Amino acid sequence: MQNTLLQINNVSKFYKDKVALKDVSIAVPKGHIYGLLGPNGAGKTTLIRIINQITEADEGSVMLNGEPLNQTHIRNIGYLPEERGLYKKIKVIRQLEYFAQLRGMTSKEATQKATEWLKAMELYDVRNKKIEELSKGMQQKIQFIVSVIHSPSLLILDEPFSGFDPVNAELLTQKILELKAAGTTILYSTHRMESVEKLCDSMALIHQAEKILDGTVAEIKNKFKSDLFEIVTSGNYAPSIGAIEIMQQSTTDAGHPSLLLKLNGVSNNACLKDVMNQTELIHFSQKIPSINDIFIQLVTPHNN
Fold first, then answer.
1. Sheet strands side by side (includes 202-207)
2. 134, 10: one domain
3. What is the mean pLDDT of the chain?
């Protein structure tokens, strides 16, 4: 597809008697942040290793920008692994220059980009310190710079927020969104469901080696929306339509009754008319599940 940067076609991977991936296909659009979700052991790491050419798929294919994945694509991919790995005895600036040159940059380009990113990540003052002299959070920011310093077209982030305090997490969020705005395509593997809703355009859920769900975040939330509606009224409301059930009752900070209603097939208009025949309606909205709600629903054993 013309607007697809990364295309995974029917990929499977087997280890002796274990199925790590089974017939997984996903398409990551150019310039999107694509969430790769799944519980531990689902197969996310295996798929990431295949994209990074650390291991090979047993079946299926991977296309990057319309070409079969090959060694020349390494320079077009940035990878922030969940298990961080830096040379602890080497100074920050030298380390960044080294990794940049490994990705094909000249010495001058490497120094320029390293300096730019150190300033952007608020680390310029520690450029001449060794990695082992830095806090864990600072080391994680250096690892992020390593993954983006060569301006990859595809950036793979595996739990990038792990261990960050709220201030640095917000800084990293801003940089990720800036990269997206500049045209970088980002594959984002995480367990942090709230960040998926904040960052991702599209997502796929892998469970027990198989893809069980994919689409845009908005489409997926809409697909799983329930027949539940939240209303706030100025006075008391008791449904006169038998099918409407009150599931929860509470009071807002302003002292207004707040109800969670299950309509059970009753139309929105009929419900609204019933409410307004009894009291003033202040708020009416459908309850849309969060990505976290959907994740739990799909991967909890008794729901499968």
1. 77-80, 154-158, 185-189, 33-37, 202-207, 210-216
2. yes
3. 92
